[in-house]
Design brief:
nucleotide-binding; Kinase-like_dom_sf; Transferase(Phosphotransferase), domain 1; 5-stranded antiparallel beta sheet; 35% helix; alpha+beta; Phosphorylase Kinase, domain 1; single chain
Length: 445
């Protein structure tokens, strides 16, 4: 199991404000087979890839499946006792991550009123918080250092922070206002977005009309193009990672799987993502490039138009085989331009995929987007096709009550007494040098 986890490289971070166990709303006139497929789809896709892999790896029947073995190269699962026999040692000085001298030494948990839990992930919670002095509302992502270190995810947490620092100037990417840490926790102070996940709205309506799907796809493509201009590949685009703001514009979140420093012709090879959206080259364990993001855009656009991802199957091995080998099937209820853009984005050969030659410009100039004024789009001058109709920051109608009804832990808003710090907490405190960050004064004017 440890060998497989090493190959996967990391547990996928939970996306900002993303509840993990939503119940699918009852939709009228949906057939029983579609409901069964949808429920299975909800259950599987809400898992991180690594959590999903752990589940099938502990299932002896699934492990024996030839396609699962060939794709994941699973070794025999270890006994739980053996897995815990050698706990991870504390980080050595050479393992410490230091992103430089930028810091916000004055920020502390007591600066905030933590009002509601609005999400939960592998390493902590996301909370709605009001800054006491500014009286501004933020989404504060609070992560437990010990949990991060246990799964050896410190480098990826720091990478997420590093990507967030570069995203503050784009309208369709969530912004980091500042970050700080205590001895046992990390705090991301982020834009508060309360229009709901795209997936939340999609699962209620089953699918979107083409103009609405095009609007969302255009804003998503703009955000991906911006990340690519910074040599960042996103790698985990899906409706759960796409939020709507209070006006109905797209906000892309969760940068835990981003890969930095990928030049225009550069490649990477880490096997990561979410099963339903993995590009063929990732499943083949081949080097891949920025075009994985355009594949995912195609999958999301297909899902917006049809209700499920393009190659979805309740049987994961069959779904992987579909992604690798099954021709794309398009029903005749969309326009020719929509068919053409889906065929281009969901091209299995990445060298022939839409975006392979000129990246975002190819998507921008496609006939499907010919009605989009891209200058107006980036300046939010196009009225969104749907308004979430939230009344203000306290309107939590688009968050799962499973989280909003949960009491806010007292430990979230205070620092631990130094006298009570354990050795493990002190070791954790040394692993995140340079995490704290404060923006220049004029960054958010």
């Amino acid at each position: 199991m440890g060998e497989m986890q090493g190959a996967l490289a990391r547990t996928r971070l939970e996306s900002l404000l993303r509840p993990r166990h939503k119940k699918r709303a009852e939709v009228q006139k949906r057939s029983e087979s579609f409901l069964l497929t949808g429920l299975a789809f909800m259950k599987q896709r809400r898992m991180g890839l690594n959590d999903f892999i752990q589940k099938i790896a502990n299932n002896s029947y699934a492990c024996k499946h030839s396609e699962v073995q060939s794709i994941l190269k699973i070794s025999q699962p270890q006994e739980p006792e053996l897995m815990n026999a050698n706990p991870s040692p504390p980080p050595s000085p050479s393992q410490q991550i230091n992103l430089g001298p930028s810091s916000n030494p004055h920020a502390k948990p007591s600066d905030f009123h933590f009002l509601k839990v609005i999400g939960k992930g592998s390493f902590g919670k996301v909370l709605l918080a009001r800054h006491k002095a500014e009286e501004a509302f933020y989404a504060v992502k609070v992560l437990q250092k010990k949990a991060i270190l246990k799964k050896k995810e410190e480098k990826h947490i720091m990478s997420e922070r590093n990507v967030l620092l570069k995203n503050v100037k784009h309208p369709f990417l969530v912004g980091l206002h500042f970050s700080f840490q205590t001895a046992d926790k990390l705090y991301f102070v982020l834009d508060y977005i309360n229009g709901g996940e795209l997936f939340y709205h999609l699962q209620r309506e089953r699918c979107f009309l083409e103009p609405r799907a095009r609007f969302y796809a255009a804003e998503i493509a703009s955000a991906l193009g911006y990340l690519h201009s910074l040599n960042i590949v996103y790698r985990d685009l899906k409706p759960e990672n796409i939020l709507l703001d209070s006006q109905g514009h797209i906000v892309l979140t969760d940068f835990g799987l981003c890969k930095e420093n990928i030049e225009h012709n550069g490649t990477t090879s880490t096997f990561c993502g979410t099963p339903e959206y993995l590009a063929p080259e990732v499943l083949h364990k081949q080097p891949y490039d920025r075009t994985v993001d355009w594949w995912c855009l195609g999958a999301v656009l297909y899902e917006m138009l049809y209700g499920l991802p393009p190659f979805y199957s309740r049987n994961t091995a069959e779904m992987y085989d579909n992604i690798l080998n099954k021709p794309l099937q398009l029903k005749p209820n969309i326009t020719n331009s929509a068919r053409h853009v889906l065929e281009g984005l969901l091209q299995k050969d990445r060298t022939k995929r839409l975006g392979a030659k000129d990246d975002f410009m190819e998507i921008k100039n496609h006939v499907f987007f010919s009605v989009i004024n891209w200058d107006d789009l980036i300046n939010k001058k196009i009225t969104p096709p749907f308004n979430p109709n939230v009344s203000g920051p306290s309107d939590l109608r688009h968050f799962d009550p499973e989280f909003t009804e949960e009491p806010v832990p007292n430990s979230i808003g205070r620092s631990p007494d130094s006298i009570l710090l354990t050795a493990s907490v002190k070791e954790a405190a040394e692993a995140f040098l340079g995490f704290s960050y404060a923006p220049p004064v004029d960054s958010f004017l």
